Amino acid sequence: MSLLREAERCIANQGSHATLNALITTLQHLGPWLERVRDADTRRTQGTSKSAVDGRLIAIKDNICTRDLPTTCASNALDKFTSPFNATAVQQLEEAGAIVAGKSNLDEFGMGSHSINSRFGPVRSLRRNRDGESLSAGGSSGGSAVAVATAQCYAALGTDTGGSVRLPAAYTGTVGFKPSYGLISRWGVVAYANSLDTVGIIGKDVSSVREVFGVVNRPDSRDPTSLSSFTRSRIDSHLRSPALAARATSPLKIGVPLEYNISELSPSVLRAWSRSLAYMRRQGHTIHPVSLPTTTLALSAYYVLAPAEASSNLAKYDGVRYGTRSEGPNSATFPSGYLYASTRGVGFGSEVKRRILLGAFSLSADAMDNYFIQAQRVRRLVQHDFDAVFRAHQPIASGQPETNTNPEKDAVDVLICPTAPSSPPRISSLMDHNPRASPLDAYMNDVFTVPASLAGLPAISVPVTVESTIDSRDADLAGIQVIGQYGDDSLVLKVAELLDGRHL
């Protein structure tokens, strides 16, 4: 298919799927954009394409700054804000010939697991349950995932703080990749939790994800958390060592985390997990149970650390320096009233306010030792658990030996586990008007994605379809997650390609 025809199909799908609410803003004045696609088509014919994504339409999550389209973070606090610059990842894509297809919907400031906490309304998935009810698209990058799933774009950028790329991918049947922390620049990404935020990629398959990753996997001096060229070379050198380079031709050792086999795991997800492992065994790879004991505490630690960083980051949205300023007595009377109390009350939604309050409490003098400091200790233990089971050692940690302290027979190359413990829930069961809806239920969806985020590891969710043992006409779609050692992103993508889209 020509690039022009592909772009026209994407634009047509944006119109026909508008009710899904995946894109907040779309391309305007299509003539200049289509002309850029025609130029890319010409370069493709001549064999002079700028990159693998030259002429492709890429959706951008609306907490990533774009110069030509507004950046709202799906919040009233950033109403009608247009950035004077592109985020580094967006700039890299445009220089590679890609075209911004629009800004995708999300949970406000990336805080949510179902893309329902948006001032533009919830994102709706095409997937329905047996009663025809709309299912969750996952969050917070649900708009990016639905846009890819419905071919409104070729691929999409999202952000993953605790699973916000992988969970939507699992719920929509797409591929969601969170690279190692620091590989993709965060400059121009509106911060939620700086030590966890990672720009991720959603695509229809691993190949398209790999193409986008090849463009944005670059150092950036403007981002202090971006890995330098020297550090990247150090990681590559470690992965080319004889012991690790042999993995390209020899069977892999696949780890199965015992702690992930929880009682809440639904039968369909458990079936997809077990059959995925059986498939890998048939391909000649070996399966090994491993223990990650501290990961059972990871979710609790995450919901201390992430809100704490969020409460600090969002303090700037006071209506004086940043964001919308509300009308009313509190917005102007000083010192008789609080200058920004009304502004923050109106600007932020309920979930954002909940997390700001959680973070402010955990950072308070009386609570810091019991919550924030303890959570940081848990984070270090989670990282240690992962380092103890991988054959490759953590390549940039200070004081690490050149080889893993684990005996060779016990170490594994990657881990394979579910992305989410269950199938996507009904949207109606998640909304505020439902008396049974609880924030804790939504937080539990991140139980399998948060550990890799705390450790900064590369992780990818791929769709796996499992035929029902009861009715051959029925099939369950689940997301299966592949996790690798820090910097081992290429191996994670390689294993994901083996599982991507399998009918097992």
From TrEMBL:
Q: What protein name is recorded for this chain?
A: Glutamyl-tRNA(Gln) amidotransferase subunit A, mitochondrial
Instruction: List the signal peptide residues.
Output: none
Q: What is its EC number?
A: 6.3.5.7
Q: How does it assemble?
A: Subunit of the heterotrimeric GatCAB amidotransferase (AdT) complex, composed of A, B and C subunits.
- Name the keywords, alphabetized: ATP-binding, Ligase, Mitochondrion, Nucleotide-binding, Protein biosynthesis
Which enzyme type, at the first EC level?
ligase
The record, for PROSITE patterns, names:
AMIDASES (PS00571)
Q: What does this protein do?
A: Allows the formation of correctly charged Gln-tRNA(Gln) through the transamidation of misacylated Glu-tRNA(Gln) in the mitochondria. The reaction takes place in the presence of glutamine and ATP through an activated gamma-phospho-Glu-tRNA(Gln).
Instruction: Share an example GO biological-process annotation for this protein.
Output: glutaminyl-tRNAGln biosynthesis via transamidation
Name the domain of life.
Eukaryota
Fetch the InterPro entries from UniProt.
Answer: Amidase (IPR000120), Amidase_CS (IPR020556), Amidase_dom (IPR023631), AS_sf (IPR036928), GatA (IPR004412)
Recorded family membership = Belongs to the amidase family. GatA subfamily.
* Domain Amidase residue range list: 17-493
Q: What's an example of a GO molecular-function annotation for this chain? A: ATP binding
Taken from the UniProt entry, a GO cellular component term is: glutamyl-tRNA(Gln) amidotransferase complex
| Catalytic reaction list | L-glutamyl-tRNA(Gln) + L-glutamine + ATP + H2O = L-glutaminyl-tRNA(Gln) + L-glutamate + ADP + phosphate + H(+)
What's one Pfam family the UniProt record gives for this protein?
Answer: Amidase
Source organism of this protein record: Aspergillus heteromorphus CBS 117.55
In which compartments does the protein localize?
A: Mitochondrion
> Where along the chain is the active site annotated?
K61 (charge relay system), S140 (charge relay system), S164 (acyl-ester intermediate)
